[in-house]
Amino acid sequence: MITLVSFGMLFFMALVVFILVRWGRLRLNGRYPVSTLTFIAILFTSGLDVGLIMFPLTEFPVYANLKENSEYTFTNPLAIEFGFWGFLVWAIYFVTCFYFCAIEPKVKFFEITWVKWINNLVIIGTCAFTAHLLYANLSWYLPSIAVENSFPWYYALIVGATILCAVYSSTDLKYVKILSLSSGSLFFALIIGLGAIALMSTKVSAPDYFDTLPLLTDYFAHLDRFILPINDYHAFYLFWWFAWSIMIGQFTSRFVGNMRTVWLFLSMLIWPSLAIGLWFSVLYLFYNNGLKTSGLINLTMVFVGVVFVINSLDSLIRLYSDNLNLTVARFGKQKYIALHGFLMMLLTVLFSLQFIQIQWVGALVIGLGLCCFVYILLGKQRYPLPKADALMPLQTKDK
Predict the structure, then answer these.
(1) Which are the contacts of 385, defined by CB distance < 8 A and separation ≥ 6?
(2) What is the pTM of this model?
């Protein structure tokens, strides 16, 4: 599996270079063009999930334990965490977003029946994995509601309610901007709030935070080390990014508004990475100085994480329900909510029982990407691909 994800990373990084050289000046438009600020908010909040909120505090000790994990000796835990979540991996999202905005309307590879089914299986599987991550991490952040030697009903209820909220929000497009802007605002409020709490403690001062931020630059000094998997856990992360990429490309491409390809690339790499870097730096202060996050802080983090999950699931459910015509218009709101709620809960259970693994989903995406590339090469004479400095017309909006 490491060989496969290594090939996928090299393949997609080569595509990034090709796209920027060939179509860097191309102006892009999606079906529902929005302002750059709104696009970045949609990109950030739909492109990340609860793992961003909940993983770092559990992972810093692992990356710092060099005795058992010697592969991390080349840099610090903050740079490792950022490398698994920031900057370069967003280039995978850029490839799929550009493809669905500029190439797919002409090629229509994803309208082929077998491709359409695999595509939607990937989206549905990724959706359920997102809910599973929330369930798997609640015990660390909310240990007080765990029931010893019994099924964690409280955690199951939280995840079930989150899924139902996401299914309901997916019934109307108006919730996209509301969720994206509100979850983004909550995230930045969380950064500011935790930063203020850290500074109010006796263990941290303002210079400590500014001394922590430069640790992130070590990621860029070792950028080449993050292209290929460092170990199995890094490979898991890369498969996870690939699994998300196909949905992110299809969803975010709808909202690109008169943006040149090169600016799309820079926007997708820089702005989310800045927010991630600020957040991880605050959490690293807590970890490095032994500050506790129990009680209200953990509750707040869980709340923001749940909003992230609702936003992500909303995007995923909306996408595959449109693709498969499992829509509100067809079934009505009540049947729609029952159908997708049951499907998501069932698949979340299967992920929790490890009947499905996200690595398999990521492998499918890499395979689809390669098949699409070959398909275009074999039929390139039939597809009038966009010119380098053209203006992409607005795509036909959904009915």
Answers:
(1) 103, 106
(2) 0.86
